[in-house]
Amino acid sequence: MVDSLKKPGFEELRPGIKVPAKETLLTPRFYTTDFDEMARMDISVNEDELQAILEEFRADYNRHHFVRDAEFEQSWDHIDGETRRLFVEFLERSCTAEFSGFLLYKELGRRLKDKSPVLAECFNLMSRDEARHAGFLNKAMSDFNLSLDLGFLTKSRDYTFFKPKFIFYATYLSEKIGYWRYITIYRHLEAHPEDRIYPIFRFFENWCQDENRHGDFFDAVMQSQPQMLNDWKAKLWSRFFLLSVFVTMYLNDLQRKDFYASLGLDAREYDIHVIKKTNETAGRVFPLMLDVDNPEFYQRLDICVEKMAKLNAIANSNTPKFLQFFQKLPTLASIGWHMVKLYLMKPIDAVSAQGMAR
């Protein structure tokens, strides 16, 4: 008999293999793109910087970093109940996101090999990093008697098609927000080691540098394609992707605030810090930043968190599914309205903001 404290309420494909989390707007997505369009890109205007980044990837600074040490070799049964469930969810979301990056980068490396060798090698080396991250996280899940079947995940997930420029916007932000998430947790736990409930967090300092380098690569690619950054459409799309990434993180994390509390973090304060840092970083490449110092920004996000709780309550009720749909409609409309209001908030011109900062 399986101890319910060790496997709190997760469905399994087979013993020890977790059923992947249901795909929603808030779960990590798998992507595909127009590989031919990407192969035709002329990167010559910024090839020197891309070549320098490639040399950094080749150096493989973290090749000996992701090695489990003796601290992992113990029972983790004392992490139980709701904390255990939330931690397994954290590991699964992180593993899925890293594995999604691996699949995309690996395919890009394969497809671009003969037409754009510099980009192809960069993508291959980034896929190496993402595979390490995903494997390390999946092994961590096994300490809690569960893991993901990554082969099954590859075949069972729906893939979202994005044009190359949207891939660059999305992956740039994903890598940079990943950096700020990991380094913020790492620095907090260095200051408060009593809150480090599991040794994986000790690895986050070097780990987040992979994320940072990957983000720098996408920054350099976009700089090689000025049309992706300098017209009116770029202003609209950069706002859209910034808002999408921030909203997704905020709604996910505030629903799981008890997990962050177990690390001694206030989820809302943590997310606000990460949003501000990521927004500032994105202002070095995007033409616009969001006004994330405006209190209205978080007031509307907090309303959306409350609305999401209502949606979850409806979904978990015994009401028939077809009735649930109609019950959810007013709440979904309200969330959509607040998203529109957030998008229409006056943005900040990145060039002007950087000039003032200097």
From TrEMBL:
Pfam short name (any one): Rubrerythrin
Catalytic activity field: Mg-protoporphyrin IX 13-monomethyl ester + 3 NADPH + 3 O2 + 2 H(+) = 3,8-divinyl protochlorophyllide a + 3 NADP(+) + 5 H2O
Tagged with keyword Ribosomal protein: no
NCBIfam families: AcsF, PRK13654.1
GO BP annotation list: light-independent chlorophyll biosynthetic process; photosynthesis
Biological role stated in the UniProt entry: Catalyzes the formation of the isocyclic ring in chlorophyll biosynthesis. Mediates the cyclase reaction, which results in the formation of divinylprotochlorophyllide (Pchlide) characteristic of all chlorophylls from magnesium-protoporphyrin IX 13-monomethyl ester (MgPMME).
Family of the protein in this entry: Belongs to the AcsF family.
Protein known as: Magnesium-protoporphyrin IX monomethyl ester [oxidative] cyclase
Gene it is expressed from: acsF
Pathway assigned to this chain's UniProt record: Porphyrin-containing compound metabolism; chlorophyll biosynthesis (light-independent)
Record SUPFAM superfamilies: Ferritin-like
Organismal lineage: Bacteria, Bacillati, Cyanobacteriota, Cyanophyceae, Nostocales
Protein source organism: Tolypothrix tenuis PCC 7101
Cofactor: Fe cation
GO molecular function, one term: magnesium-protoporphyrin IX monomethyl ester (oxidative) cyclase activity
Domain Rubrerythrin diiron-binding: 89-221
